[in-house]
Amino acid sequence: MVESLEQLKARVTSYLDTHLANDVDQSTLAASMQYSVLAGGKRLRPTLTLATVEIFGGELTEDVVRAATALELLHTYSLIHDDLPAMDNDDLRRGAPTNHRKFGAGMATLAGDGLLTLAFQWVTDNQLPATMKSQLALELAKAAGPAGMVAGQARDIEGTGRRLTLDQLRYLHRQKTGALLRYAVLAGGIITVQPAAVQRLLAQFGSSYGLAFQIYDDLMDVVGTTTAMGKRVGKDAAEHKNTYPGLLGVTGAEEQLQQALERAKNAQAALSQLTGRSFAAYDDFLAYFKL
Amino acid sequence: MVESLEQLKARVTSYLDTHLANDVDQSTLAASMQYSVLAGGKRLRPTLTLATVEIFGGELTEDVVRAATALELLHTYSLIHDDLPAMDNDDLRRGAPTNHRKFGAGMATLAGDGLLTLAFQWVTDNQLPATMKSQLALELAKAAGPAGMVAGQARDIEGTGRRLTLDQLRYLHRQKTGALLRYAVLAGGIITVQPAAVQRLLAQFGSSYGLAFQIYDDLMDVVGTTTAMGKRVGKDAAEHKNTYPGLLGVTGAEEQLQQALERAKNAQAALSQLTGRSFAAYDDFLAYFKL
């Protein structure tokens, strides 16, 4: 029986709640890591992995949940470092003070470093086959590293105050947000040992979904409210960040969002056709984008 | 034929020089990562791994060099983040401006994040057996993560200005410096598939060597010069850091250093006896400590 998104999300949060502190050996560091990890959030990335495992009939064993939940550790590190005074200098995240506002920039830097490193521990410290663990660690490193997410962040810093072309902005978004969401979907295929043709379509779905996600995030910074978003809005424009609405206007950005969603749906349909399985669970993820 | 330390070091530096930029996809990020990685340094950690592989008759293939050199990426990340204004706020490293003095704290944070993540990529992105890669990634994550090096850093920040006991200080040093040097030696045993009893002795050698290394570093901060060390000295005392000479005086710290070296030599002798191999190559590493 396939679990709902809410059930999968609850599994992830419960796993984090129970296991995170076990792997941290200093009390302030543990408090700082837990503060951000347990602050809530959609748990979108590990939930995408677990939903994909379920679609392929895989069992959600504790080992699978551990490997999938590693991605939430990694995602949380990226938020903590992104909020630092030396980076975006944000005071508010998920409706609460950011990590460095609570623990200081030094401890926040270490909490991020600890979460990033622990992600690779959780991916490999389980009873899944070694080939699977090694592949997960490699794909996670490529998605999160200096040719993936970290490169996107660097491009974001470097591009701030300069007007990028649409192609440059799409490339930045693919690295900064897309790579990790692409990995989230792909990890479900790795864990259920899918053939290369299926993996390619999973990567395509994840990649298009990730682009849609970042365009939507850009849009919400323009049309959302601080209360609804739990973080300061309107700051992209104030800081001369490159965004889809900044470059194309709200209507133009909405069109690009629709195109990315179309590509995601095409990949979803192709996956159904190729595998004979239902990918209806992905509809719930696509329903996230309400305009 | 066994290579000298200088030859092994040259291999590591040459590998970094040739391969680092290939895995970075943003020019300023690449420059920042290369700036610190190629600034010199003893390459002690990967050299310890490669020397251990050679002792057991293992071949230094390109895959082995890649997996071993990953540790230098990780070590460099720890230096960059440690030097940040939010941490130790250092201006000088290896005789040159620290990364954030050259590239700004935001890019320096990202360069560190990129190097840490790339370390896990290099450990898994090679043709070694999957069981080996998965074990290397796991041990590296445990050594570097929130129950290892990052915990030691947190303990260092938290302990500054408070007087620790000798036991507390030793524990801090084992996490902050010892864990990674322990991994460096252990990795050589993993790559050459040594039995558990040998791995235990390798870990013991690495651990004692790591403690000696940190005590020596503490001592050099008292008795060394800025020119010789390439970094500011005398700063531990100025910043009320907990150190061996601070707690025990120079003579007491030297005694502790000798004890740690004795333990390392005992492990070295036990390794020779158990395996019937010569561990004379470790003598060159032990010769590092000149008082």
TrEMBL record, chains A, B:
GO terms for cellular component: cytoplasm. It is an enzyme of class 2 (transferase). Its cofactor is Mg(2+). GO terms for biological process: terpenoid biosynthetic process. Residues 250-277 form a coiled coil. GO terms for molecular function: (2E,6E)-farnesyl diphosphate synthase activity; metal ion binding. Belongs to the FPP/GGPP synthase family. This is Farnesyl diphosphate synthase. It comes from Limosilactobacillus oris DSM 4864.
